[in-house]
Design brief:
alpha+beta; single chain; 4 helices; four-stranded mixed beta sheet; Nucleotidyltransferase, domain 5
Length: 111
């Protein structure tokens, strides 16, 4: 799938990863469009859960990709499927800020 999208200038691939060690969360985001790196972002955050870090990385990636006029497809690759499911579960109060922001940006992108 990734090899096919490298040939498409209208598709952005976002790869995220988050981990916690010694109470410090580190999350990394890579963005590529048409085999060109757009962004590589590394954040170090203290006193945050890996779920919040992963949600923030996904949110940041969607924001960056949707701000480009030529992008019509966004593919997110993450090793945290449980986090991705939380985006669509608005009953989880702790993650509502990220969920609402992600869903609002996706709604605007799809319109």
């Amino acid at each position: 799938m990734i090899i096919k999208t490298f040939n498409s200038p209208s598709t952005t691939i976002i790869v995220t990863d988050a981990s916690i060690k010694n109470n410090i969360a580190i999350f990394i985001l890579y963005m590529h469009t048409f085999n060109n790196p757009i962004a590589k972002t590394v954040y170090h955050v203290v006193h945050v859960t890996s779920t919040k870090a992963e949600l923030f990385a996904i949110r940041y990636g969607i924001n960056q990709a949707s701000n480009q006029d030529s992008i019509s497809k966004i593919i997110i690759v993450t090793d945290s499927i449980h986090v991705a499911k939380k985006i669509f579960d608005l009953s989880l109060y702790l993650f509502q800020v990220h969920s609402v922001a992600i869903l609002a940006k996706l709604r605007k992108f799809f319109l």
